[in-house]
Hints:
- The chain is an alpha/beta fold.
- 22% of the residues lie in helices and 22% in strands.
- β8 and β9 (147-154) form a beta hairpin.
Amino acid sequence: MELIVLGAAPAYTDRAGSAASSYLLRAGDGPGRSGGAALLLDLGQGAFANLASTLEPSSLTAVLVSHLHPDHFIDLVPLRHYLKWEFDPPRRVRVLAPAGLADRLDALDGQFGFAAAALDVEGLAVGIHSFGPFDVTVRRVSHTDESYAFRVSMAVPDARRQQAAMGATSRTVGNQAGAAGPESEAAGAAGPESEAAGAAGPESEAAGPAGPESEAAGPAGLVYSGDCSRVEDLVPLIRPGDTLLSEASFGAGPVAPGAQHLTSADAARAASTGRAARLLLTHMLSGRSRTDILAAAQAAFAGPVQLLTEGDRFEI
């Protein structure tokens, strides 16, 4: 599959031409994978135009929203308008998100049913799910009261999927003792873009630091952090050879008090512990030194590290 970066910015940036978090995964054969399945992870401000110039948006297999901060979902509004007004009859796209997304979109327009006019909004659930040719593992992470990270890979036969699920379960059970999040996270999850949502630690499946699953559990994939504040929430998703796409909002650090985010060194430790093949860093706030960001990550992870920008493409 191919990863296309549609948006790599955080809630605010001084980088001209940027768009907020949005990452497109395309599967299929041939140049540009025309006609193949397409899965979208987040759709922040400014990203719809990049999506629409890359593929016809109604062809999306699904959109997965990691959490309900606007820089991760707000361009669902132009997607909704496009689907409703560009076609007769309107077309629809499936959207999976934390609870309350449809209500927030409706409130933006002051109209009940605004989202439902073109978006089939469903709740996200922890576990392994299939979207066309993609297998997606969904896992709770610490940021807002309901935030998720994702692992996406090409679908595998049921027997191998069951093996992967059993491997994840056995690792969780073995690490339950380390699963408790810090008490301070219960006070509230305020990122720089947040109105201070309550920040619960991830569910009980979010065990403490664990080694990666067996290489036999499935093909290499992409692990996307969403927004996250704890390395140990990400490690159980990573398998050897995966690409880790991680936020590093505060660059080389430190993270501002009360902000539930990672530094580039945090992301690098997750990549190293999980034996990822590559680390892609994104979602960095204005004024952070790219040199320092890279240096901090490279000190903790021996593999290749890259800072993302819109238009970047990678084979996964």
